[in-house]
Amino acid sequence: MADPSSYRPQPGAIPESPGVYKFRDEHRRVIYVGKAKSLRQRLGSYFQDLAGLHPRTRTMVTTAASVEWTVVSTEVEALQLEYSWIKEYDPRFNVKYRDDKSYPYLAVTMNEEYPRVQVMRGQKKKGVRYFGPYGHAWAIRDTVDLLLRVFPVRTCSAGVFKNAARTGRPCLLGYIGKCSAPCVAKVSAEEHRELAEEFCDFMTGRTGTYLRRLEKQMVAAADEMEYERAARLRDDIEALKKAMEKSAVVLADATDADLIAVAEDELEAAVQIFHVRGGRVRGQRGWVTDRVEEVTTAGLVEHALQQLYGEESGDAVPKEVLVPALPEPVEPVQEWLAGRRGAGVSLRIPQRGDKRALMETVARNAQQALALHKTKRASDLTTRSRALEEIAEALDLDSAPLRIECFDISHLQGDDVVASMVVFEDGLARKSEYRRFQIKGFEGQDDVRSMHEVITRRFRRYLAEKERTGEWTDDEPPADGATPAGTDTPAAPDGVTPPAPTTPATPGNAFTEEDGRPKKFAYPPQLLVVDGGQPQVAAAKRALDELGIDDIAVCGLAKRLEEVWLPGEDDPVVMPRTSEGLYLLQRVRDEAHRFAITYQRTKRAKRFRAGPLDDVPGLGETRKQALIKHFGSVKKLRSATIDQICEVPGIGRKTAETIAAALDRAAPAAPAVNTATGEIMEDEERGQEP
Question: Where is the sequence biased in composition, kind Acidic residues (predicted)?
Fold first, then answer.
């Protein structure tokens, strides 16, 4: 018996979406398939105290060794996918299938003189049109009940039909309009068969034409003032739309297709494939792969096609293969697929309709697979410990770097130069410790100088906090900020004197504020990582040396070959690509890169949106928009008088005078105007370092 906690997913890794899940045993056999409105809530119920579980459920979870899930859009889709998997895997703990209870179909007996709509199970019969399968018989009855008001087809048994014909009185459905009552000759056999054929056409997906026809009839009835008939047609249309909402995970044209979706980041990519046969999802597979080379989404798709269809014993190529991006060039790949299939293959990107919607479902599953993979690797304590030990060994550190800080520089062609600092503690991101910087010491593009400035500023703050909080080796704190005997605290560079400590240091309160939170920049890292190669590493090391800090290890991670550079070394440290230590360094570096780019883009967007009205104190976004809407542009607002400005709702005379003064101060000789908003753009971005 297995311990369920050994394979329990992290609660945050399980989505709250509807979906279907599978429990597998140690031999990877599927032992249970279930569906859920909320995967997180349902799966969480399996991992409670074993004593509180039903005996059968307890046996299942202790037999299982892993659990996985697939996200879908609706509960109806979950029903259909659950059936498909039960049919495919025959899980031992799924009671219905073990009891040989097949899933129900909606059947239309076109082999009879008066076709009948009914629920059918078991072996299919010749001459009967089948739709489904459905998860439950009630789902069929709900659908039929909605459609009968539009397509009043017979639903009664042979005995009821014969009895009505004998007595000349129809059943209740005939009286309320949900049956055309062929039993009493209200319609002929030909007219009733035509209704049954229209019913089948609607169920096969030919819905658009019929709905448009009903809508035209409704409009025509209203124009002719036949309002009761128009209202009845309106209700018919609403009933059909409700029935369409109950459709399953199907493609309306009942085609055979494979849908391939890719979720990716700079390090890894997740591929998900849904196999659709006869318009229904019949299978799913996927994998996560390392991006060991620079490859586009189209390249990832091409690799997936090769892996999926390249082997002799691989999957049969369907008529259609739907992908998020086409390989370049696409013709050779398409010809290869056609050769594998022995007939033409349509390789394309779905643009609209059911196929586009189903592709979005596949893409969500790919995103979830990638997120789950990263969560597993990042949250596994053993893996993180091994990664830190590998980093310590590769960089010849005295101990594992429990706190790692990484710095990255970002700009757009030399404009809006910013930097980021991200923090990982025990191998996990500590987002509350993230910081971002504006480069202030110079203008233009120089990543090396920028790195030196940022490292200097960050560790000046560290030294200032260290002295201010009184982290000294002696028992008594120094007076007036003097350095106590026996310590080797350097003076702050560039003539900046760190502030004197305001309160004595006491055990347990160093580096903490009154509310218990850590002070900004108070903790030093054991390892400082920079995004770059030798020049950036040298700049970071020089900044630390100038500050007199020699107990922090420094390294750089170059993106091109994922080489680790150390200060003063001519050759990089090459860590194995499968190393968990390298994987952690890559995650840290990429997180710093993401954080820097986000800040840089935010600054750039604010610069384009900035205008002289931003300097007016107390003038919010609503009143700024009211001013621009009233005058049409900042230029016309600048030429307006104070009395004219006061005419804008919400603007008093004092505020109008402040606005006029701000516009006069900001008036440039040749203003640069944002053509999108009509506002004047300032030369510089205001703001302070967080």
Answer: 680-690
Question: Which helix (H) or strand (E) element contains residue 214?
Answer: helix 208-223
- Report which of 50, 88, 43, 85 is spatially closest to residue 66, judged by C-alpha positions: 43
Give per-residue burial for 140-158: e unless 16+ CB within 10 Å, then b.
Answer: beebbebbbbbbbbbbbee
- DSSP letter for each residue of 501-544: PSS---TTTTTB-TTSPBPTT-SPPSEEEEESSHHHHHHHHHHH
Superfamily (CATH H level) for 4-98 = GIY-YIG endonuclease (3.40.1440.10)
Contact in structure between 652 and 616 (CB atoms under 8 Å): no
The predicted-structure confidence for 352-405, as pLDDT tens digits, reads as follows 888 888 889 889 888 888 887 776 665 566 777 888 889 998 998 887 888 899
Phi, psi (deg, nearest 5) at residue 656: -65, -40
The rounded distance, in Å, linking the Cα atoms of 231 and 237 is 10
For the domain 257-377, what is the CATH code?
Answer: 3.30.420.10
94 and 107 in contact (C-beta within 8 Å)? no
Element (DSSP H or E) covering residue 117: strand 117-120
DSSP H or E run through 589: helix 580-609
Hey, do 257-377 and 382-605 end up sharing a CATH topology, with the first three levels equal?
yes
3-state secondary structure of 201: helix
Residue 302: in which H helix or E strand, if any? Answer: helix 297-309
Q: For the structural domain made of 382-605, what CATH number should be given?
A: 3.30.420.340
User: Do 399 and 592 meet the contact criterion of CB atoms below 8 Å apart?
Assistant: no
Token output for 571: 């050759």
